[in-house]
Design goal:
5 strands; homodimer
Amino acid sequence: MNATDPVTLWFTGLPGSGKTTLACLMAERLRQQHGLKTEVLDGDGVRRMIGGVGYSREDRRRHVVSSAFTAFMLNKNGIFVTAAFVSPYRSMRKEARDLIGRRFVEVFVECPISVCRKRDPKGLYKKFKDGLITGLTGVDDPYEVPIDPEIVLKTDDYTPDECLLKIEEYLKTR
Amino acid sequence: MNATDPVTLWFTGLPGSGKTTLACLMAERLRQQHGLKTEVLDGDGVRRMIGGVGYSREDRRRHVVSSAFTAFMLNKNGIFVTAAFVSPYRSMRKEARDLIGRRFVEVFVECPISVCRKRDPKGLYKKFKDGLITGLTGVDDPYEVPIDPEIVLKTDDYTPDECLLKIEEYLKTR
């Protein structure tokens, strides 16, 4: 963990798995305890800023890859990035990895969908149940589990603080 | 011109008007003579990194607005941005301006199309003439001239160095 070697921690997982929470907490930790410059990129936040981004496979792909480009540019300029994106397909995560290069750290936020559904922080599972939305990742849209992520965080078994420690351990031995 | 108040110099104009050249030279000037942190965002470069971005109006819009988001994030982190994008429609430049806010500086790179066609640095006008491409801005696709840009640079009348001076003058009085 070194100010001259910024990385992008790329949190992927189901809606409600804890990506955004961990991305925000980890950015705070890196800033406060390690004195690093950080930026959070949150999938929904980026969508709000850009507008008109749908949920087709190509829309999702472009959303992920153009956000990866932003992360790349921030890293290039010395900023650590924590990025929270469902990024459901392996192929699009591979594109993000190829774009960002060795600074890309895939963090699989693993959580059973039954737990995600109970948390439902954005009300998406309820909206799906009520027939208001379709194309919900993990329900009627695919989520391809990472095969070889750098870090796995089981957010139903571990506290947020334990998850942050696990990331710190990884970054220290990197 | 102040390291704590980074801006995005947004160069818009026809293909071959000199956007990329001026964006690169201006970034170099800000870095070397003013000690500022800079990044160049070039429309074609971003397209190459992201892939799969077409030339429909919506594709162009999203390309411009997601690049504006990258510029916004870089500004937020203290980096001056010079951005070279044809960005042919007023509405998409307004979206970029709204996203970036008061840091957005529109630089209209004005040059008669006859001159751009002679320069043709990317061979686009020739490709169009040979029937290899369509949708070329200024030829069979619209370019909406900026109504009230912060800076206008007539690249057929002024040298690159004169253009850079004009930008510096603007930034000093800003």
